[in-house]
Amino acid sequence: MTTLVGPGWSANAGDETTPPTAIRGSGLALWRQIAGDIERAIADGTLAPGARLPTEAEFARRYAVNRHTVRRAMEELARDGQVRVEQGRGSFVAEDVLDYEVSARTRFSEWIRRHDREPSGRVLSLATMPAPRAIAEALGIETGGAMVRLERLGLADGRPVSLAQHHFAIARFPGIAAALTAHGTISAALASLGVADYFRRVTRVSARAPRPEEAALLETSRSRPLLVTENVNVDAEGRVVEFGLSRYPTPRVQIIFEPGSETT
Amino acid sequence: MTTLVGPGWSANAGDETTPPTAIRGSGLALWRQIAGDIERAIADGTLAPGARLPTEAEFARRYAVNRHTVRRAMEELARDGQVRVEQGRGSFVAEDVLDYEVSARTRFSEWIRRHDREPSGRVLSLATMPAPRAIAEALGIETGGAMVRLERLGLADGRPVSLAQHHFAIARFPGIAAALTAHGTISAALASLGVADYFRRVTRVSARAPRPEEAALLETSRSRPLLVTENVNVDAEGRVVEFGLSRYPTPRVQIIFEPGSETT
DNA sequence: TCGAATTTGTGCGTATGTATT
DNA sequence: AAATACATACGCACAAATTCG
Prior knowledge:
- The structure is a homodimer.
- Chain A has about 260 residues and is of the alpha+beta class.
- The first copy, chain A, contains eight helices and ten strands.
- Chain A has helices spanning about 30-45, 55-65, 65-80, 110-115, 135-140, 175-180, 185-190, 210-215, and strands spanning about 85, 90-95, 100, 120-130, 145-155, 160-170, 200-210, 225-235, 240-250, 255.
- In chain A, the strands form three sheets. In chain A, strands 4-5-6-9-8-7 form a six-stranded antiparallel sheet, with helices on both faces. Chain A has a two-stranded antiparallel ribbon with strand order 1-2. In chain A, strands 3-10 form a two-stranded parallel ribbon.
- In chain A, helix 6 (about 175-180) packs across helix 7.
- Chain A starts with about 30 loop residues before the first helix and ends in a 7-residue tail after the last strand.
- The interface of A and B includes residues 97, 203, 227, 254 and 257 of A.
- Strand 10 (about 255) of chain A pairs antiparallel with strand 7 (about 200-210) of chain B, so a sheet runs across the interface.
- Chain B binds a DNA duplex (21 and 21 nucleotides) through helix 3.
Protein backbone atom coordinates (compact mmCIF):
# COMPACT_ATOMS: atom_id res chain seq x y z
CA MET A 1 0.00 0.00 0.00
CA THR A 2 1.35 3.41 -0.89
CA THR A 3 1.32 5.37 2.27
CA LEU A 4 1.86 8.76 3.72
CA VAL A 5 5.46 9.69 3.24
CA GLY A 6 7.76 12.64 3.35
CA PRO A 7 8.82 15.01 6.12
CA GLY A 8 6.49 14.70 9.05
CA TRP A 9 4.02 12.71 7.00
CA SER A 10 2.77 15.80 5.38
CA ALA A 11 4.66 16.02 2.10
CA ASN A 12 2.10 14.61 -0.24
CA ALA A 13 -0.60 16.99 0.73
CA GLY A 14 -1.25 17.82 -2.88
CA ASP A 15 0.09 14.58 -4.28
CA GLU A 16 -2.79 12.84 -5.98
CA THR A 17 -0.73 10.43 -8.08
CA THR A 18 -0.21 7.99 -5.22
CA PRO A 19 -3.42 8.10 -3.25
CA PRO A 20 -2.74 6.59 0.19
CA THR A 21 -5.95 4.66 0.14
CA ALA A 22 -6.66 1.66 2.24
CA ILE A 23 -8.07 -1.21 0.24
CA ARG A 24 -11.65 -2.08 0.94
CA GLY A 25 -12.79 -5.66 0.84
CA SER A 26 -9.24 -6.95 0.95
CA GLY A 27 -10.07 -9.28 3.80
CA LEU A 28 -8.22 -7.00 6.22
CA ALA A 29 -10.25 -4.45 8.06
CA LEU A 30 -9.55 -0.87 7.05
CA TRP A 31 -8.59 0.16 10.55
CA ARG A 32 -6.09 -2.69 10.73
CA GLN A 33 -4.51 -1.61 7.48
CA ILE A 34 -4.22 1.93 8.75
CA ALA A 35 -2.84 0.83 12.11
CA GLY A 36 -0.31 -1.36 10.36
CA ASP A 37 0.65 1.52 8.13
CA ILE A 38 1.38 3.81 11.00
CA GLU A 39 3.09 1.09 12.95
CA ARG A 40 5.43 0.47 10.03
CA ALA A 41 6.20 4.16 9.74
CA ILE A 42 7.14 4.23 13.39
CA ALA A 43 9.22 1.09 13.14
CA ASP A 44 11.25 2.24 10.16
CA GLY A 45 11.83 5.67 11.59
CA THR A 46 9.70 7.66 9.18
CA LEU A 47 7.91 8.85 12.27
CA ALA A 48 10.42 9.76 14.95
CA PRO A 49 9.74 9.32 18.65
CA GLY A 50 7.89 12.32 19.98
CA ALA A 51 6.77 13.41 16.52
CA ARG A 52 3.27 14.62 16.17
CA LEU A 53 0.94 12.54 14.07
CA PRO A 54 -1.49 14.12 11.65
CA THR A 55 -4.84 14.82 13.22
CA GLU A 56 -7.54 12.20 13.09
CA ALA A 57 -9.47 14.37 10.66
CA GLU A 58 -6.43 14.62 8.43
CA PHE A 59 -5.95 10.86 8.46
CA ALA A 60 -9.61 10.35 7.65
CA ARG A 61 -9.30 12.66 4.67
CA ARG A 62 -6.15 11.04 3.34
CA TYR A 63 -7.42 7.50 3.63
CA ALA A 64 -10.90 8.52 2.57
CA VAL A 65 -12.44 6.81 5.57
CA ASN A 66 -14.57 7.97 8.44
CA ARG A 67 -12.84 9.43 11.46
CA HIS A 68 -14.19 6.57 13.56
CA THR A 69 -12.15 4.17 11.47
CA VAL A 70 -9.02 6.17 12.13
CA ARG A 71 -9.85 6.32 15.81
CA ARG A 72 -10.15 2.56 15.93
CA ALA A 73 -6.62 2.30 14.54
CA MET A 74 -5.28 4.89 16.97
CA GLU A 75 -6.91 3.12 19.89
CA GLU A 76 -5.07 -0.04 18.99
CA LEU A 77 -1.75 1.75 18.75
CA ALA A 78 -2.33 3.63 21.98
CA ARG A 79 -3.24 0.40 23.78
CA ASP A 80 0.02 -1.02 22.54
CA GLY A 81 1.89 1.98 23.80
CA GLN A 82 3.15 2.96 20.36
CA VAL A 83 1.38 6.28 20.26
CA ARG A 84 0.14 8.61 22.89
CA VAL A 85 -3.19 10.32 22.34
CA GLU A 86 -3.85 13.53 24.19
CA GLN A 87 -7.23 15.14 24.18
CA GLY A 88 -7.10 18.64 22.81
CA ARG A 89 -3.45 18.38 21.82
CA GLY A 90 -3.06 15.66 19.28
CA SER A 91 -1.42 12.27 18.92
CA PHE A 92 2.27 11.60 19.21
CA VAL A 93 4.68 8.80 18.60
CA ALA A 94 5.63 7.37 21.96
CA GLU A 95 8.92 8.78 23.12
CA ASP A 96 11.91 6.93 24.36
CA VAL A 97 11.89 7.34 28.07
CA LEU A 98 15.16 7.90 29.76
CA ASP A 99 15.23 5.70 32.83
CA TYR A 100 16.91 7.24 35.80
CA GLU A 101 18.08 4.35 37.93
CA VAL A 102 18.48 5.50 41.49
CA SER A 103 21.42 3.94 43.20
CA ALA A 104 23.92 4.86 45.87
CA ARG A 105 26.49 5.94 43.31
CA THR A 106 24.70 8.06 40.75
CA ARG A 107 26.56 10.54 38.55
CA PHE A 108 24.85 12.48 35.83
CA SER A 109 27.26 11.72 33.01
CA GLU A 110 27.46 8.02 33.90
CA TRP A 111 23.68 7.82 33.85
CA ILE A 112 23.44 9.38 30.41
CA ARG A 113 26.29 7.35 28.95
CA ARG A 114 24.75 4.13 30.19
CA HIS A 115 21.84 4.94 27.89
CA ASP A 116 24.16 5.55 24.94
CA ARG A 117 23.62 9.26 24.86
CA GLU A 118 26.04 12.12 25.02
CA PRO A 119 25.95 14.00 28.32
CA SER A 120 26.51 17.73 28.53
CA GLY A 121 25.51 20.48 30.89
CA ARG A 122 25.15 24.16 31.40
CA VAL A 123 25.76 26.00 34.64
CA LEU A 124 22.93 28.45 35.14
CA SER A 125 24.09 30.05 38.34
CA LEU A 126 26.50 29.77 41.22
CA ALA A 127 25.65 31.82 44.27
CA THR A 128 26.22 32.07 47.97
CA MET A 129 23.11 32.55 50.09
CA PRO A 130 21.63 31.81 53.50
CA ALA A 131 20.17 28.35 53.86
CA PRO A 132 16.39 28.00 54.15
CA ARG A 133 15.27 25.76 56.96
CA ALA A 134 14.66 22.59 54.98
CA ILE A 135 18.04 22.71 53.26
CA ALA A 136 19.85 23.72 56.43
CA GLU A 137 18.40 20.70 58.20
CA ALA A 138 19.52 18.38 55.43
CA LEU A 139 23.02 19.88 55.45
CA GLY A 140 23.23 19.79 59.20
CA ILE A 141 23.79 23.52 59.63
CA GLU A 142 21.73 26.29 61.21
CA THR A 143 18.90 27.94 59.34
CA GLY A 144 20.35 30.96 57.61
CA GLY A 145 23.87 29.57 57.62
CA ALA A 146 25.86 30.28 54.48
CA MET A 147 25.63 27.82 51.64
CA VAL A 148 26.52 27.69 47.98
CA ARG A 149 23.92 26.82 45.39
CA LEU A 150 24.93 25.59 41.96
CA GLU A 151 22.15 25.38 39.44
CA ARG A 152 22.75 23.26 36.39
CA LEU A 153 20.86 22.08 33.36
CA GLY A 154 21.71 18.54 32.31
CA LEU A 155 21.41 17.46 28.69
CA ALA A 156 21.46 14.14 26.88
CA ASP A 157 22.27 14.43 23.19
CA GLY A 158 21.52 18.12 23.52
CA ARG A 159 18.03 17.63 24.93
CA PRO A 160 17.45 18.85 28.47
CA VAL A 161 16.70 16.04 30.91
CA SER A 162 17.38 17.49 34.32
CA LEU A 163 17.46 20.77 36.16
CA ALA A 164 19.40 20.41 39.36
CA GLN A 165 20.30 22.55 42.35
CA HIS A 166 23.30 21.41 44.37
CA HIS A 167 23.80 22.82 47.85
CA PHE A 168 26.99 22.82 49.87
CA ALA A 169 27.57 24.19 53.35
CA ILE A 170 30.28 26.87 53.42
CA ALA A 171 31.07 25.84 56.98
CA ARG A 172 31.97 22.40 55.72
CA PHE A 173 33.64 23.49 52.46
CA PRO A 174 34.92 27.10 52.70
CA GLY A 175 36.48 26.90 49.25
CA ILE A 176 33.58 25.25 47.46
CA ALA A 177 32.54 28.21 45.31
CA ALA A 178 36.04 28.66 43.92
CA ALA A 179 36.45 24.92 43.46
CA LEU A 180 33.21 24.64 41.51
CA THR A 181 34.28 27.54 39.31
CA ALA A 182 37.73 26.03 38.71
CA HIS A 183 36.60 22.48 38.00
CA GLY A 184 34.14 21.39 35.38
CA THR A 185 32.33 18.85 37.47
CA ILE A 186 31.07 18.54 40.99
CA SER A 187 33.01 15.34 41.53
CA ALA A 188 36.24 17.09 40.56
CA ALA A 189 35.51 20.11 42.73
CA LEU A 190 34.79 17.90 45.72
CA ALA A 191 37.86 15.79 45.03
CA SER A 192 39.97 18.96 45.16
CA LEU A 193 38.55 19.57 48.61
CA GLY A 194 39.42 16.12 49.84
CA VAL A 195 36.18 14.27 49.19
CA ALA A 196 37.39 11.30 47.19
CA ASP A 197 33.97 9.78 46.78
CA TYR A 198 30.41 10.31 47.88
CA PHE A 199 27.19 8.33 48.02
CA ARG A 200 23.51 8.94 47.83
CA ARG A 201 21.80 8.28 51.12
CA VAL A 202 18.11 9.10 50.68
CA THR A 203 16.05 10.14 47.72
CA ARG A 204 12.64 11.68 48.11
CA VAL A 205 10.44 11.82 45.06
CA SER A 206 7.50 14.06 44.45
CA ALA A 207 5.92 15.79 41.48
CA ARG A 208 4.48 19.18 40.72
CA ALA A 209 3.62 21.46 37.85
CA PRO A 210 6.59 23.29 36.37
CA ARG A 211 7.08 27.02 36.77
CA PRO A 212 7.30 28.88 33.47
CA GLU A 213 11.07 29.18 33.67
CA GLU A 214 11.48 25.50 34.45
CA ALA A 215 9.25 24.51 31.57
CA ALA A 216 11.26 26.71 29.21
CA LEU A 217 14.63 25.38 30.35
CA LEU A 218 13.53 21.75 30.24
CA GLU A 219 11.69 22.29 26.97
CA THR A 220 8.53 20.78 28.31
CA SER A 221 4.91 21.78 28.41
CA ARG A 222 3.52 23.56 31.42
CA SER A 223 0.78 20.99 31.58
CA ARG A 224 3.17 18.12 32.18
CA PRO A 225 4.38 17.61 35.69
CA LEU A 226 7.99 17.48 36.74
CA LEU A 227 9.39 14.68 38.82
CA VAL A 228 11.15 16.32 41.72
CA THR A 229 13.78 14.51 43.72
CA GLU A 230 15.57 15.61 46.84
CA ASN A 231 18.61 13.74 47.95
CA VAL A 232 21.42 13.82 50.44
CA ASN A 233 24.92 12.79 49.47
CA VAL A 234 27.40 11.69 52.09
CA ASP A 235 31.08 10.88 52.07
CA ALA A 236 32.64 7.56 52.99
CA GLU A 237 32.42 8.45 56.69
CA GLY A 238 28.74 9.26 56.42
CA ARG A 239 29.15 13.02 56.74
CA VAL A 240 26.79 15.12 54.65
CA VAL A 241 28.45 16.51 51.55
CA GLU A 242 25.61 17.85 49.49
CA PHE A 243 21.89 18.37 49.34
CA GLY A 244 20.49 18.12 45.85
CA LEU A 245 17.16 19.07 44.36
CA SER A 246 16.53 17.90 40.83
CA ARG A 247 13.65 18.26 38.43
CA TYR A 248 13.00 15.90 35.55
CA PRO A 249 10.50 16.34 32.73
CA THR A 250 7.77 13.68 32.42
CA PRO A 251 7.20 11.56 30.53
CA ARG A 252 10.67 11.87 28.99
CA VAL A 253 12.34 10.82 32.19
CA GLN A 254 11.24 8.07 34.52
CA ILE A 255 12.76 7.02 37.80
CA ILE A 256 13.59 3.40 38.49
CA PHE A 257 14.28 1.83 41.78
CA GLU A 258 15.50 -1.70 42.31
CA PRO A 259 15.84 -2.61 45.94
CA GLY A 260 18.75 -4.91 46.63
CA SER A 261 16.55 -7.42 48.41
CA GLU A 262 15.08 -7.36 51.92
CA THR A 263 15.60 -3.74 52.84
CA THR A 264 12.68 -3.26 55.20
CA MET B 1 -0.05 40.79 71.54
CA THR B 2 -3.68 39.86 71.26
CA THR B 3 -3.90 37.83 68.14
CA LEU B 4 -6.26 36.23 65.74
CA VAL B 5 -8.06 33.49 67.54
CA GLY B 6 -11.05 31.27 67.26
CA PRO B 7 -12.07 28.51 64.86
CA GLY B 8 -10.16 28.76 61.65
CA TRP B 9 -8.82 32.13 62.64
CA SER B 10 -11.99 33.74 61.53
CA ALA B 11 -14.08 33.97 64.67
CA ASN B 12 -13.48 37.56 65.62
CA ALA B 13 -14.61 39.01 62.36
CA GLY B 14 -16.79 41.47 64.15
CA ASP B 15 -14.92 41.44 67.41
CA GLU B 16 -13.59 44.90 68.02
CA THR B 17 -12.87 44.43 71.70
CA THR B 18 -9.58 42.66 71.09
CA PRO B 19 -8.19 44.29 67.99
CA PRO B 20 -5.41 42.07 66.66
CA THR B 21 -3.18 44.97 66.00
CA ALA B 22 0.54 44.73 65.58
CA ILE B 23 2.39 47.28 67.66
CA ARG B 24 4.10 50.01 65.74
CA GLY B 25 7.33 51.43 66.99
CA SER B 26 7.86 48.52 69.32
CA GLY B 27 11.34 47.97 67.99
CA LEU B 28 10.15 44.84 66.19
CA ALA B 29 9.14 45.22 62.58
CA LEU B 30 5.46 44.78 61.92
CA TRP B 31 6.01 41.96 59.48
CA ARG B 32 8.09 40.06 62.02
CA GLN B 33 5.37 40.39 64.62
CA ILE B 34 2.82 39.05 62.17
CA ALA B 35 5.06 36.19 61.08
CA GLY B 36 5.68 35.27 64.70
CA ASP B 37 1.96 35.38 65.37
CA ILE B 38 1.16 32.94 62.62
CA GLU B 39 4.09 30.75 63.48
CA ARG B 40 2.85 30.43 67.03
CA ALA B 41 -0.64 29.58 65.86
CA ILE B 42 0.80 26.78 63.76
CA ALA B 43 3.02 25.52 66.53
CA ASP B 44 0.25 25.31 69.12
CA GLY B 45 -2.17 23.69 66.73
CA THR B 46 -4.60 26.56 66.36
CA LEU B 47 -3.85 26.25 62.68
CA ALA B 48 -3.88 22.61 61.68
CA PRO B 49 -1.70 21.17 58.93
CA GLY B 50 -3.36 21.64 55.59
CA ALA B 51 -5.68 24.36 56.90
CA ARG B 52 -6.21 27.36 54.76
CA LEU B 53 -4.93 30.66 56.07
CA PRO B 54 -6.95 33.85 55.74
CA THR B 55 -6.20 35.70 52.54
CA GLU B 56 -3.49 38.33 52.45
CA ALA B 57 -6.14 41.01 52.10
CA GLU B 58 -7.93 39.67 55.15
CA PHE B 59 -4.75 39.67 57.21
CA ALA B 60 -3.99 43.21 56.09
CA ARG B 61 -7.44 44.30 57.20
CA ARG B 62 -7.21 42.58 60.58
CA TYR B 63 -3.78 43.89 61.41
CA ALA B 64 -4.50 47.24 59.78
CA VAL B 65 -1.37 47.09 57.68
CA ASN B 66 -0.63 47.11 53.99
CA ARG B 67 -0.79 43.87 52.08
CA HIS B 68 2.91 44.12 51.31
CA THR B 69 3.60 43.91 55.00
CA VAL B 70 1.58 40.72 55.26
CA ARG B 71 3.29 39.33 52.19
CA ARG B 72 6.66 39.94 53.76
CA ALA B 73 5.61 37.83 56.71
CA MET B 74 4.23 35.09 54.49
CA GLU B 75 7.44 35.05 52.46
CA GLU B 76 9.39 34.36 55.58
CA LEU B 77 7.09 31.53 56.63
CA ALA B 78 7.08 30.02 53.15
CA ARG B 79 10.87 30.17 53.01
CA ASP B 80 10.92 28.28 56.26
CA GLY B 81 8.56 25.70 54.88
CA GLN B 82 5.87 26.39 57.45
CA VAL B 83 3.28 27.53 54.96
CA ARG B 84 2.67 26.84 51.33
CA VAL B 85 1.56 29.77 49.17
CA GLU B 86 -0.27 29.06 45.93
CA GLN B 87 -1.08 31.72 43.42
CA GLY B 88 -4.78 31.99 42.76
CA ARG B 89 -5.65 29.52 45.52
CA GLY B 90 -4.46 30.85 48.79
CA SER B 91 -2.00 30.00 51.52
CA PHE B 92 -1.99 26.83 53.56
CA VAL B 93 -0.32 25.45 56.61
CA ALA B 94 2.30 22.97 55.40
CA GLU B 95 0.91 19.48 55.49
CA ASP B 96 2.37 16.35 56.89
CA VAL B 97 3.52 14.37 53.93
CA LEU B 98 3.05 10.66 54.00
CA ASP B 99 6.36 9.13 53.03
CA TYR B 100 6.08 6.01 50.98
CA GLU B 101 9.30 4.12 51.56
CA VAL B 102 9.93 1.82 48.67
CA SER B 103 11.50 -1.40 49.76
CA ALA B 104 11.48 -5.01 48.70
CA ARG B 105 8.76 -5.86 51.19
CA THR B 106 6.10 -3.22 51.00
CA ARG B 107 2.55 -3.84 52.14
CA PHE B 108 -0.05 -1.13 52.19
CA SER B 109 -1.29 -1.59 55.73
CA GLU B 110 2.21 -1.88 57.14
CA TRP B 111 3.18 1.33 55.40
CA ILE B 112 0.26 3.23 56.85
CA ARG B 113 0.67 1.78 60.34
CA ARG B 114 4.33 2.68 60.38
CA HIS B 115 3.20 6.29 60.13
CA ASP B 116 0.75 5.88 63.00
CA ARG B 117 -2.32 6.07 60.85
CA GLU B 118 -5.22 3.72 60.45
CA PRO B 119 -5.21 1.85 57.14
CA SER B 120 -8.38 0.95 55.32
CA GLY B 121 -9.37 0.28 51.76
CA ARG B 122 -12.17 -0.01 49.30
CA VAL B 123 -12.29 -2.40 46.39
CA LEU B 124 -13.52 -0.52 43.37
CA SER B 125 -13.57 -3.34 40.88
CA LEU B 126 -12.48 -6.89 40.27
CA ALA B 127 -12.56 -8.03 36.68
CA THR B 128 -11.11 -10.54 34.28
CA MET B 129 -9.84 -9.11 31.00
CA PRO B 130 -7.26 -9.64 28.28
CA ALA B 131 -3.83 -8.27 29.10
CA PRO B 132 -2.59 -5.21 27.19
CA ARG B 133 0.92 -5.56 25.86
CA ALA B 134 2.79 -3.70 28.55
CA ILE B 135 1.13 -5.63 31.37
CA ALA B 136 1.42 -8.95 29.56
CA GLU B 137 5.14 -8.41 29.18
CA ALA B 138 5.55 -7.65 32.84
CA LEU B 139 3.52 -10.73 33.82
CA GLY B 140 5.37 -12.92 31.35
CA ILE B 141 2.28 -13.97 29.41
CA GLU B 142 1.12 -13.34 25.85
CA THR B 143 -0.57 -10.11 24.89
CA GLY B 144 -4.27 -10.67 25.22
CA GLY B 145 -3.86 -13.51 27.70
CA ALA B 146 -6.39 -13.59 30.52
CA MET B 147 -5.63 -11.63 33.64
CA VAL B 148 -7.46 -10.38 36.70
CA ARG B 149 -7.41 -6.73 37.61
CA LEU B 150 -8.24 -5.61 41.12
CA GLU B 151 -8.66 -1.89 41.59
CA ARG B 152 -8.46 -0.60 45.09
CA LEU B 153 -8.52 2.73 46.89
CA GLY B 154 -6.20 2.89 49.88
CA LEU B 155 -6.96 5.18 52.82
CA ALA B 156 -5.03 6.40 55.83
CA ASP B 157 -7.23 7.67 58.65
CA GLY B 158 -10.03 7.79 56.13
CA ARG B 159 -8.20 9.99 53.64
CA PRO B 160 -7.37 8.49 50.26
CA VAL B 161 -3.67 8.06 49.66
CA SER B 162 -3.40 5.53 46.88
CA LEU B 163 -5.31 4.19 43.93
CA ALA B 164 -3.88 0.88 42.85
CA GLN B 165 -4.44 -1.67 40.13
CA HIS B 166 -3.17 -5.17 40.81
CA HIS B 167 -2.81 -7.57 37.92
CA PHE B 168 -2.52 -11.35 38.14
CA ALA B 169 -2.15 -13.84 35.31
CA ILE B 170 -4.95 -16.39 35.24
CA ALA B 171 -2.55 -18.89 33.71
CA ARG B 172 -0.43 -18.65 36.82
CA PHE B 173 -3.29 -18.41 39.34
CA PRO B 174 -6.51 -19.92 37.96
CA GLY B 175 -8.35 -19.38 41.23
CA ILE B 176 -7.19 -15.82 41.86
CA ALA B 177 -10.50 -14.07 41.29
CA ALA B 178 -12.30 -16.28 43.78
CA ALA B 179 -9.44 -16.04 46.24
CA LEU B 180 -9.44 -12.25 46.11
CA THR B 181 -13.19 -12.22 46.67
CA ALA B 182 -12.95 -14.62 49.58
CA HIS B 183 -10.04 -12.98 51.38
CA GLY B 184 -9.83 -9.42 52.52
CA THR B 185 -6.28 -8.78 51.49
CA ILE B 186 -4.04 -9.59 48.57
CA SER B 187 -1.48 -11.22 50.83
CA ALA B 188 -4.13 -13.57 52.21
CA ALA B 189 -5.50 -14.41 48.77
CA LEU B 190 -2.03 -15.22 47.48
CA ALA B 191 -1.23 -17.23 50.57
CA SER B 192 -4.31 -19.36 49.93
CA LEU B 193 -2.87 -20.07 46.51
CA GLY B 194 0.46 -21.17 47.85
CA VAL B 195 2.42 -17.93 47.65
CA ALA B 196 3.73 -17.59 51.16
CA ASP B 197 5.56 -14.36 50.53
CA TYR B 198 6.40 -12.02 47.70
CA PHE B 199 8.84 -9.24 47.01
CA ARG B 200 9.05 -6.09 44.98
CA ARG B 201 11.54 -6.33 42.20
CA VAL B 202 11.45 -3.08 40.23
CA THR B 203 9.60 0.15 40.73
CA ARG B 204 9.24 2.69 37.98
CA VAL B 205 8.11 6.15 38.95
CA SER B 206 6.60 8.77 36.75
CA ALA B 207 4.03 11.52 37.11
CA ARG B 208 1.09 12.84 35.16
CA ALA B 209 -2.05 14.88 35.52
CA PRO B 210 -4.97 12.99 37.05
CA ARG B 211 -8.03 12.07 35.07
CA PRO B 212 -11.24 13.49 36.51
CA GLU B 213 -12.23 10.18 38.08
CA GLU B 214 -8.83 9.72 39.66
CA ALA B 215 -8.89 13.23 41.07
CA ALA B 216 -12.32 12.60 42.55
CA LEU B 217 -11.40 9.27 44.14
CA LEU B 218 -8.14 10.58 45.57
CA GLU B 219 -9.77 13.83 46.66
CA THR B 220 -7.15 15.91 44.95
CA SER B 221 -7.18 18.81 42.55
CA ARG B 222 -6.93 18.21 38.84
CA SER B 223 -4.09 20.66 38.71
CA ARG B 224 -1.88 18.56 40.96
CA PRO B 225 0.02 15.73 39.40
CA LEU B 226 -0.17 12.15 40.54
CA LEU B 227 2.89 10.10 41.25
CA VAL B 228 2.53 6.91 39.26
CA THR B 229 4.46 3.79 40.12
CA GLU B 230 4.64 0.53 38.26
CA ASN B 231 6.09 -2.46 39.96
CA VAL B 232 6.60 -6.15 39.60
CA ASN B 233 6.25 -8.48 42.56
CA VAL B 234 7.91 -11.87 42.55
CA ASP B 235 7.79 -14.88 44.84
CA ALA B 236 10.72 -16.38 46.71
CA GLU B 237 11.78 -18.27 43.58
CA GLY B 238 11.76 -15.11 41.49
CA ARG B 239 8.62 -15.97 39.54
CA VAL B 240 6.36 -13.06 38.72
CA VAL B 241 3.32 -12.89 40.97
CA GLU B 242 1.80 -9.53 40.27
CA PHE B 243 2.10 -6.37 38.24
CA GLY B 244 0.95 -3.30 40.09
CA LEU B 245 0.18 0.21 38.97
CA SER B 246 -0.41 2.74 41.72
CA ARG B 247 -1.24 6.40 41.76
CA TYR B 248 -0.51 8.70 44.68
CA PRO B 249 -1.70 12.27 45.20
CA THR B 250 0.98 14.95 45.45
CA PRO B 251 2.02 16.64 47.57
CA ARG B 252 0.26 14.52 50.20
CA VAL B 253 2.33 11.48 49.35
CA GLN B 254 6.02 11.38 48.63
CA ILE B 255 8.16 8.45 47.64
CA ILE B 256 11.40 7.66 49.42
CA PHE B 257 14.28 5.51 48.26
CA GLU B 258 17.10 4.51 50.51
CA PRO B 259 19.55 2.43 48.56
CA GLY B 260 21.30 -0.12 50.73
CA SER B 261 24.73 0.94 49.55
CA GLU B 262 26.65 0.22 46.35
CA THR B 263 23.84 -0.97 44.12
CA THR B 264 25.04 0.42 40.78
C1' DT C 1 -15.92 26.70 26.42
C1' DC C 2 -16.04 31.09 28.35
C1' DG C 3 -16.03 34.89 31.50
C1' DA C 4 -16.39 36.80 36.19
C1' DA C 5 -14.72 36.71 40.75
C1' DT C 6 -11.13 35.63 43.92
C1' DT C 7 -6.45 35.35 45.29
C1' DT C 8 -1.55 35.64 44.94
C1' DG C 9 2.55 37.76 42.17
C1' DT C 10 5.07 41.80 40.54
C1' DG C 11 6.44 46.43 39.68
C1' DC C 12 6.51 51.25 40.50
C1' DG C 13 6.71 55.36 43.27
C1' DT C 14 6.75 57.53 47.79
C1' DA C 15 7.73 58.34 52.62
C1' DT C 16 9.94 57.59 57.04
C1' DG C 17 12.98 55.98 60.63
C1' DT C 18 17.60 54.09 61.79
C1' DA C 19 22.36 53.06 61.33
C1' DT C 20 26.70 54.08 59.09
C1' DT C 21 30.05 56.92 57.07
C1' DA D 1 26.18 67.71 61.56
C1' DA D 2 25.43 66.15 56.98
C1' DA D 3 25.25 62.68 53.61
C1' DT D 4 24.35 58.12 52.49
C1' DA D 5 22.55 53.58 52.65
C1' DC D 6 19.25 50.41 54.20
C1' DA D 7 15.02 48.45 56.15
C1' DT D 8 10.36 49.22 56.76
C1' DA D 9 5.76 50.49 55.34
C1' DC D 10 2.11 52.33 52.31
C1' DG D 11 -0.68 52.97 47.93
C1' DC D 12 -1.87 51.86 43.41
C1' DA D 13 -2.16 49.17 39.24
C1' DC D 14 -1.95 45.26 36.67
C1' DA D 15 -0.48 40.29 35.69
C1' DA D 16 -1.25 35.42 36.41
C1' DA D 17 -3.49 31.35 38.32
C1' DT D 18 -7.51 29.19 40.11
C1' DT D 19 -12.28 28.34 40.78
C1' DC D 20 -16.93 28.27 39.64
C1' DG D 21 -21.14 29.04 37.35
